[in-house]
């Protein structure tokens, strides 16, 4: 397993940024990463995951990718309950709604990501393939609709 895959599959490592976001230091990630607060589909408990903002369509619409596919816990939780919260940049705990994109739109978004960030994609793709064992992983995308600040 390469270093990227090892990092992505090590629970304590991927959870390291969560306290930074909760303490209001999300701006340190320059809007590239976000904290997604969601509810456990069975427990109803608050859950947190830090993921990359694959595309910022606007200040209030952000697309994220489920690199571990449709079986990722946060993805399954959003499928069950799309209401969530997002912290990104200087914005904290903004109420949001998740829209799970269909396969065609997910693929189009992923192709745009690959075109715009080829070096990041090369590292991520290698890590995802290594971690999942799938040579051509299906990566569903989610559009987060943040409540606008007015």
Core attributes:
150 residues; 6 helices; 36% helix
Name the shape in a single word.
globular
- Number of strand segments: 6
How are helices and strands ordered from N to C?
A: HHHEEEHEEHHE
Number of helices: 6
Main sheet, how many strands, which sense, barrel? 6 strands, antiparallel, barrel
- Please indicate the percent range of residues in DSSP E strands (runs of 2 or more): 25-35%
Structural class: alpha+beta
Main-sheet strand order equals 1-2-3-6-5-4
The whole-angstrom Rg is 15 Å
Percent range of helical residues: 25-40%
Alpha-carbon distance between the two ends = 47 Å
Provide the low-confidence segments as ranges.
none
| Whole-number mean pLDDT | 92
Account of the 3D structure:
36% of the residues lie in helices and 31% in strands. With 150 residues, it is an alpha+beta fold. A six-stranded antiparallel beta barrel has the order 1-2-3-6-5-4. β1 and β2 form a beta hairpin. It is globular.
